[in-house]
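To: structure subgroup
Subject: Chain for Friday's discussion

All,

I'm putting the inputs and outputs inline so they're searchable in the archive.
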Amino acid sequence: MEKSVGIIGGAGPAGRGLAARLATAGYAVTVGSRTAERAVEVAAAVAHNGDGSIVGGSNEDAARCDIVIVATPWDGAVETVTSVRDALQGKTVVSMVNALVKQGRELVPLVPPRGSMTAEIAAALPASRVTGAFHHLPAADMENLASGLDADVMVVGDDIAARRETLELTNAMLGLRAVEVGSLALAGAVESFTAVCISVNIRHRAHTYVKLAGLS
């Protein structure tokens, strides 16, 4: 069995999609939620292939895994990770959080005080190795393993070892290719582009995702 992966706030669509593909890749996944009972129900309903597993539990249970992904709504992300800070010490913590608000039929990005939600989470977790990834993925296509998804995932972070661990985790998942972007300073640009992806999806009733041409 591969390393265990916890998904804090993983009971929503984005968390379910990641859980399905991580378990298919052989990881032991813990879907976390403020309400453990809700996470248990969600985990039991997520279909996957392969030798991995999905269980539900509290956000504290998810934080005890080897690698932890933060999939909470943006306005509660810092408070949530701070509550489990001790369990996250020394670990790679991957933020997929986007600060977005709806205006009419569009999503627009908010700029947090430190420039990105990844940076906000990194500041709240000084003893963890924080990266950013998984921002532009359509949740429905992630959860549907037969969707034919063929997406690139932008990975940012200041800690090189954590960035590499995030790249490895991403590349293990069906239909995803990790693209190493660079330092945490680029997280704001990566997160903000999520607003473009979702607004295009709303306007065209589509499930678009990012694919970069020209990479070998």
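Points worth raising on Friday:
The first strand starts at residue 4 and ends at 8.
Residues 187-204 form the longest helix (18 residues).

D.
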